[in-house]
Structure formats: C-alpha cells, structure tokens
Amino acid sequence: MTNAERKEISHGIALLERASALFDRFGNAVPVAIAFLNGWPTEVQLYPQWQLGESWRFFLSLYLYWFASFALSRAVSFAKGSIAP
Fold it and tell me: Which residues touch 85 (CB under 8 Å, ≥6 apart)?
C-alpha cells in the first residue's frame, strides 16, 4: 500500500469517526423525534398484568440506536487499528 492510498483511507476513516461522534451525541434524539411525530406514548403504562402497552416501541428504538452507535464506534476503532503502519 502506498502512502497516498494510506492517506486517502485515513481521511475516510477520519470522516467516519466524525460521523460516529455526531451519531453518538445526537443519535438518541432520532427515536424521540420519531416517537413524538408518530404519536407513540413515551410513558410506561402499567397494567395489572405488568405489560408495557405501546411504549415498548420507544424503548426498543432507543436501545437499537444506542447499539448502532456502539457498533459504529467499534467499527471505527477496528478500522483505525487495521490501517496503522
């Protein structure tokens, strides 16, 4: 691999790292915005059977976005480790 290729790949990884940082910072706002736009309930409604009602979608989406943020940051760290000289 030439230095020009390594520099180009490092630039792409740096852009991905910045996108990952923004997604990590503001990624949790996406499910909240979707929940309010779709009219999903954002509070847990406990019934005698201890069911969550319709709020499970909101909490599931929060955890999925958190997991995606974690996976993206891990991918960036692995990519940075693989390009090291």
Answer: 6
